[in-house]
Amino acid sequence: MPPYSDFRSDTVTRPTEKMRKAMAEAAVGDDVLGDDPTVQKLESLAAGIMGKEAALFCPSGTMANSIAVKMWTNALEEVIVEERSHIYNLESTHLTFISGVTPRPVRSTRGVMDPDDVLANIRKPNVHTPRTSLICLENTHNIWGGAVVPLDNFEAIRRLADTHGLKVHLDGARLFNASQASGVPVKEYSRCVDSLMFCLSKGLSAPAGSMLVADRERIEFGRRLRKALGGGMRQVGVLAAPGLIALTEMVDRLKEDHARAKALARGIAGLPGIVLDPATVETDIIIFGFEHPDLPVPAMLGRLKDKGILALAVGGGIRMVTHKDVGDEDVDRAVKAFREILG
Ligand code: TLP
């Protein structure tokens, strides 16, 4: 058993042996000059999987989302975002900092924005106000505890966007988790949006990288924006090679992470202080309230760490994420630790 069972995030996953070998052997070239065959292979695979024309390999999900917002918006415009979305809360304000647009947060239930609420937040043309140009979705929804946003909500938002001449971008950092949990193919979500990004470096376990996917012309513009943001990388086939394995070999196993998250939730729900309905756990992320008279959240995290369990504080609660580097034995260890501390 390693010193720690690390449930802080699926971003902590380490590349597999096969990925490391592929990195060592990757054919590479200068990708800024368009010479890297492995990156080209990854970009065309990603575009094909999503049913779109083109894809762009980006260093991070945050950069891919930043490029997406910038490529669809202009000055004096506004972007509709879900109020707990990652793009609005956890990406260091790039909407204002990079794109110079205002965010318009809309409430939701578990990441699902009511189309009527979205409609009510689309600005009417007026000299005083920004023009609404983009709606951002997120699936799965991180802060809503890995909730899956259903396809019919995507379809409703798409219809609304078309009626009002708006673009739709999807933060699909964990879109494959949504697809594995719902049985809806990723292409179905993808056809409802103009662009989407997904991460290779979370549950799919590649060491770095996210893909931005859209039509060819927009992605070529995105390529220039990536350069302007300092994200043009040279012999980056060494990172695209594990990305190819992530896409071809790591998607189906996400189901195992979801099963472990559910087992962990069932194992700890009902213990003193834990506010968690295991039925709300749909994918790999568990977020639960923690209200204990003697143990504030930081103290609880410290007690867990003493027992070899790493978790994160979010809001007033605790977040735990399952992934390929935590197996059944780590889940058992975590449940045991919670019971020893709280039982
Ligand atoms: N999320 C990270 C942290 O930033 C919280 C995590 O540990 O979950 N969209 C979503 C929905 C994300 O969860 C993340 C990362 C990103 C975008 C940004 O991806 P990176 O970390 O590659 O910039």
Folded structure, characterized:
By secondary structure, the protein is of the alpha/beta class. The protein has 2 domains: 5-12 and 253-342, Aspartate Aminotransferase, domain 1 (Alpha-Beta Complex); 17-249, Aspartate Aminotransferase, domain 2 (3-Layer(aba) Sandwich). 42% of the residues lie in helices and 17% in strands. It has 14 helices and 13 strands. The protein is globular, with a radius of gyration of 20 Å. The relative contact order is 0.18.
What layout of secondary structure does this protein have?
Blueprint: E1 5-6, H1 17-25, H2 37-50, E2 54-58, H3 61-72, E3 77-82, H4 86-89, H5 94-97, E4 102-106, H6 115-120, E5 131-138, H7 151-164, E6 167-171, H8 175-182, H9 186-191, E7 195-199, E8 210-214, H10 216-228, H11 237-249, H12 254-268, E9 274-275, E10 285-290, H13 297-306, E11 309-310, E12 312-314, E13 317-321, H14 328-342
Parallel strand pairs: 1-11, 3-4, 3-5, 5-6, 6-7
Antiparallel strand pairs: 2-8, 7-8, 9-10, 10-13, 12-13
Shape: globular
User: What class do helices, strands and sheet pairing give?
Assistant: alpha/beta
* Strand tally: 13
What is the CATH class of the largest domain? Alpha Beta
Low-confidence stretches: none
Mean pLDDT: 97
Largest sheet data = 7 strands, mixed
Q: Kindly report the name of the CATH homologous superfamily of the largest domain.
A: Type I PLP-dependent aspartate aminotransferase-like (Major domain)
Named at the architecture level, the CATH assignment of the largest domain is 3-Layer(aba) Sandwich
Task: Give the fraction of residues assigned to helices.
Answer: 40-55%
Radius of gyration, in angstroms, nearest whole number: 20 Å
Distinct compounds present: ligand TLP
Order of helices and strands: EHHEHEHHEHEHEHHEEHHHEEHEEEH
